[in-house]
Amino acid sequence: MWWKIIIFFGMSAVIVAAFLTASPMRAADSLGPVDAYRIFYFHVPQAWVASLAFLISMIYSIRFLKTKNMEYDTKALTANKLGVMFAVVATVTGSIFAKMTWGEFWNWSEIREVSIFILLLIYGGYFALRSAVSDPDTRANLSAVISIIFAVAALFLIFVLPRIYGLFSQHPSDSILNESGQITMGATVRIIFFSSLIMFTALFFWVYNLSVRVARLSANLLLENKK
Amino acid sequence: MPIQSVSWVSKTLAVTRKDIVSEFRTRYAVNAIVMFALVTLTVISFAIGLLSPSKEILSALFWVILFFAAMSGLAQAFIKEEESGTAMILRLSCAGSIVFFGKMLFNLLLLITLSILIVPLFIVFLKISPADWIIFTGGVLMGLIGLSGATTIIAAIVSKASVKGALFTVLSFPVLLPLLVAAIEITRVSFTGGSFADISAPFQLLVAYDVIMITLSSMLFDFVWRL
Could you read off the pLDDT tens digit of each residue along chain A, which spans 227 residues? Predict the structure, then answer.
C-alpha cells in the first residue's frame, strides 16, 4: 500500500523534474537538439532494470535447478516477463535518441544496440520454449537450463565479441562515472538521475512482488480445485 | 578407477556408432541436412549469379548455409529417440554424460560430412576459393565443433517440447551468434588471404567458446536428460 503511494509521487516528481530542469547535455556531446538529452533520465534506468531482471531470473534459474522448488521457477518467469517489457521500452527510447543525434534509428555496429537486440531474442526464445512445453515440471527444468545457457552466451556477446568484431560504442563511457570512478554529472542532473534510477528499480520490484504473489495465489487455487 | 575411464570412452563411441548405424538405415538427418544446404546454396547462387559479390559477403553466406542446414537436421538426434521410445532404454543403459558426448560426436560427424559435400559446390558455384586452406579448414572445423557442442543440449531440450518445428532455430540463434561472428571473420580472412596474426583474436574466441559451451552443456545435460 505504502509502496504504491511512494512510487506514484516519486515517479511523478522525477518526470516533472526531468522536463523542467536544465537538459543533461554536456559540452562534450554536442550532437542533436538539447532537449533530446532529457531521454537520458529514462533510457538509462530502463536499460538498468532490464539487465537487473535478466540477472535475477538467472539467479533464480540456478536456484531452481539446485532445489527443484517451483517457487523459484515462478520468480524467474516473473522477472523475465517484466524484463522484456523494460527491454522493449529501453530499445525504443534508445532508438529515438539515436535518430535525433546520430541520424539513424538503428546501427548494427553499435555494441549496446546489438546486445539489447540479442537480449530481446533471448527473451523471445525463453517464452517460445515455455509455451511449447505443457507439463509444468518439465517446463520449469527446461527453461531454467536454457536461461543459464543464454546467460553464458550473452556474456560472450557483451564482453568478448566487441574486442574482435570492431564493434564500437557511441554511448559516452563517462556519462555516469569517469575513469577514476567519480560521478561526472552536475548536482541537479545527478539528483534527478539517481532518483529516477531508484524509482524505476522500486517500480520493478513493486510490480515483481505483486506478480509473484498473484502467481502464488493462482497456483494455490489450482491445487484447491484439483482436490 | 582407471577401468572406468577406459570404458567411458568406449561407451561414448558405442552411442555414436549406434547413431551412425541407425542413420544409415533411415538416412533421415543426412538427407534433410544435405538437401537443405543444397537448396540454400542453389538459391544463393541463382540470386547473385549475375552479380559479383565481394569476398566478405561470400564468407557470411557460407556460414548462413551451414547454419541453416545444421538447424534443419541436428535436432533429429534426440527427437528420433523420444519418438521411437528408445530414449528410456538409453537412459537406463548409460550415464548422461556418455549420451551427451556420443550424440555430440555424431552431430559433429554429420556436420563434417555436410561440409565435405558443400565446400566443393560452394567453390564451384560461387567462383571463389580460399587463399589459405589451413586457416579455412581450421576455422570451419572449430566452428563445427562449437556448433555441435552448443546445439546438442538444445536438441535435447527441444525433444521434450510438444511443438518442435521452429523452436530449435529460435533457441539456437542467440547462443550461436558469438560463434557465427568469429567463424565468419576467420573464413573472410581465409578468402581474402591474410596471415595467422589476423585470425588470432577470433580464433581465441572460438576456442574459448567451444570449451565453455561444451563444459556448460555437459554439466547441465543431466537436468534435461533425466526428467
Answer: 788 899 899 899 988 888 888 777 666 666 767 777 788 888 889 988 998 999 999 999 999 999 998 889 999 999 999 999 999 999 999 888 888 877 788 877 777 788 888 889 999 999 999 999 888 889 999 999 999 999 898 888 777 776 666 666 666 665 666 656 566 667 788 888 888 999 999 999 999 999 999 988 988 888 888 77
Q: Which three cell numbers stand for residue B54?
A: 565481394
Task: Give every CB contact of residue A120 below 8 A, 6+ residues apart in sequence.
Answer: A84, A87, A88, A91
Residue A52 grid cell = 537487473
User: What ipTM was reported for this prediction?
Assistant: 0.87
Provide the residue ranges of all domains of chain B, joining segments of one domain with +: 2-225
Contact residues, chain B, for A150 at CB < 8 Å:
174-175
**Chain-chain contact of A150 with B175 (C-beta, under 8 angstroms):** yes
Q: Where are the domains of chain A?
A: 37-226
- Measured CA to CA, the distance from residue A119 to residue B97 in angstroms comes to 30
What are the residues of chain B with a beta carbon less than 8 Å away from any beta carbon of chain A? Answer: 150, 153-154, 157, 160-164, 167, 170-171, 173-178, 181-182, 185, 201-202, 205, 208-209, 212-213, 216-217, 220, 223-224, 227
Task: Tell me the C-alpha distance between B129 and B136, whole Å.
Answer: 10
Among chain B residues, the shortest Cα distance to A162 is held by: B178
